[in-house]
Amino acid sequence: MLFTRTQRYHSSLPQDVFINRLIGKHVKIHDLDFEIIEKGNTLRIIPHAENIESIKTLPITNVALEHKGQETDVVVTSHMRALDSGGPQVIMAFCLFLMLASVILLFVDGQPQITYTLMGIGALIFAVFCVRLQMGYFDYVRKIHAYVKSRLEAQEMPRPGLN
Question: How far is Cα 103 from Cα 26, in angstroms, rounded to an integer?
């Protein structure tokens, strides 16, 4: 829930044309391949991370399409892979615990040095965590959403020699 991002777009393209622009394509982001597949009534953009040896937090993106005459409403939702969600949740719980413990210590013990130190450590860990997520996971999400939006807006080029 905390790491889910949803964007809505409206396109003048028919649903079939938009699906044909995306199905079977591969998106390359930071030297990582994402494949677009059709699953039921939605498209899924999934990472190919089988050969990745470093730890990465990657999104899975669902593209839901709603046909409205000659137009299409597109809802793009990215969420963290279930495999990756444990680490960020533990880090957020740890930071919350440090901050909560520092507030409790301030009222119980009354020593501001320990309290402010714990609160500062929790805030520092959380800040580093947020920066790393912005550079990694959320960067993937932004680029995938931008790719889908660019495919919505792309105009087909006229072929030379055809009138």
Answer: 49
Match domain 5-83+147-153 to its CATH number in 3.40.50.720, 3.30.530.20, 3.30.565.10, 3.40.50.1820. 3.30.530.20
pTM confidence score? 0.80
Cβ-based burial of 56 (10 A; exposed 0-12, middle 13-18, buried ≥19): middle
- Residue 137 to residues 33, 102, 130, 133, Cα–Cα distance (Å): 14, 30, 10, 5
Question: Block means of pLDDT (10 residues each) for the chain, length 163 residues?
Answer: 85 81 82 85 84 78 85 89 86 92 84 86 94 90 89 60 46
